[in-house]
Specification:
Layout: H1 2-25, H2 27-35, E1 37-42, E2 45-46, E3 50-53, E4 56-58, H3 60-72, E5 75-80, H4 86-91, E6 97-103, H5 106-111, E7 112-114, E8 119-120, E9 123-128, E10 144-148, H6 152-161, E11 169-173, H7 176-184, E12 190-194, H8 195-204, E13 209-212, E14 221-227, H9 233-248, H10 251-260
Length: about 280
C-alpha cells in the first residue's frame, strides 16, 4: 500500500510539475500578447538593417519586424543600445528578442536560438572607387584591412588571411562606420564586412566606394536572436512561423530588394553553420 501511495504521489507530483512547466513555457508569448507589445533590442549603426536617417530609425529590420508584429497581432517597441551590450541585455530580460541581425555561428547557437535567416552574411571587401590594386579578394595580401571588433567577420577575415602568401594587416574597429571613414581617407585599403552591408554602403556613396566581388570564405547567414530556454520557445516558435510566412508570400524578397538592391536565396533554417 505504501508503495502504491508513494507511486501515486510521485505521479501526481510529476503531473503537477509538468502542468506548471507547460503553463510557464507559454508565459513569454502570452505576456507579449497580453501586453500587445514585442520589445526588440538592436543597435542603430548597422545599415541597411538598422540605422538612423534624418533622425528616424529605419532599415530592413524595422520593416520586417513591422510585418512580424502584424502576424503576431502586437506592436513593436524598439530598444536601442551599443552592440556589445545587446546580448547581456537580452539575458537580463530588457527585451524579448534581438534584431541585430547576427551571423549564425556554431558558438552563438550553443547559447542562443536563431530565427530563420533573413539574408546572406558571406564576407566581401569594400575598396575605394578606382583602386586598381584590388580586383579580387586575394589582392588584400599585405594590405591594411579594417573590420569590426568582436564580429564574426573578423574571424572570417583572419581565416582567409591565413591562406594568403602575405597576411593582411588587419585593423579592428569598434564600429564599421569608423572603418569606412578611414577607407575614404586612405588610411586603410579596404573594409571586410558582410556583402549586404557593404553593397548598401557602396550604393549610398557611389563614386567613393566599390565592392570587390566575389564574396570569399564560407557561406553564412544572418538571423535574429532569442533566448534558448523553454520559457521563450513559444515566442520564438511564433516568430519563426511569422518569418517563414513572410518569406513564402514574397514580402521578405520585396524588403531585401528594397534595402539591398537584390534578393537572397536563404534556407528556412541553419542547423550546421560554416563557422
Amino acid at each position: 500500500m505504501k508503495k502504491n501511495s508513494l507511486l501515486k504521489g510521485l505521479m501526481s507530483a510529476a503531473f503537477l510539475l509538468g502542468a506548471t512547466l507547460s503553463a510557464h513555457a507559454a508565459d513569454t508569448l502570452a505576456a507579449v500578447k497580453a501586453a500587445g507589445t514585442l520589445k526588440v533590442g538592436t543597435e542603430t549603426a548597422f545599415a541597411p538593417f538598422d540605422f538612423i536617417d534624418a533622425g528616424e530609425h529605419v532599415g530592413l529590420n524595422v520593416d520586417l519586424f513591422d510585418e512580424i508584429g502584424k502576424e503576431l497581432g502586437v506592436k513593436i517597441e524598439w530598444v536601442t543600445l551599443p552592440w556589445d551590450g545587446v546580448f547581456p541585455a537580452l539575458e537580463a530580460g530588457k527585451f524579448d528578442v534581438v534584431a541585430g541581425p547576427a551571423t549564425i555561428t556554431k558558438k552563438r547557437m550553443e547559447r542562443y536560438r536563431f530565427t530563420p535567416p533573413l539574408a546572406e552574411a558571406t564576407i566581401a571587401i569594400l575598396k575605394k572607387a578606382g583602386d586598381q590594386t584590388i580586383s579580387k579578394p586575394e589582392d588584400i595580401a599585405g594590405k591594411k584591412i579594417g573590420v569590426g571588433k568582436a564580429t564574426s567577420q573578423l574571424d572570417q577575415l583572419k581565416e582567409f588571411s591565413e591562406t594568403l602568401p602575405t597576411k593582411a594587416d588587419i585593423r579592428e574597429y569598434p564600429a564599421f562606420t569608423e572603418s569606412y571613414a578611414d577607407l575614404a581617407a586612405g588610411r586603410i585599403a579596404g573594409v571586410a564586412n558582410s556583402l549586404p552591408n557593404i553593397a548598401f554602403v557602396a550604393k549610398q556613396r557611389e563614386g567613393v566606394f566599390e565592392v570587390v566581388l566575389p564574396p570569399f570564405g564560407k557561406k553564412s547567414y544572418f538571423g535574429f536572436i532569442g533566448l534558448k530556454d523553454t520559457d521563450h520557445a513559444p515566442l520564438m516558435d511564433a516568430i519563426d512561423a511569422a518569418m517563414l510566412k513572410i518569406k513564402a508570400d514574397g514580402r521578405m524578397a520585396t524588403l531585401q530588394k528594397k534595402w539591398f538592391g537584390a534578393t537572397f536565396d536563404t534556407p528556412d533554417s541553419v542547423k550546421d553553420p560554416a563557422f
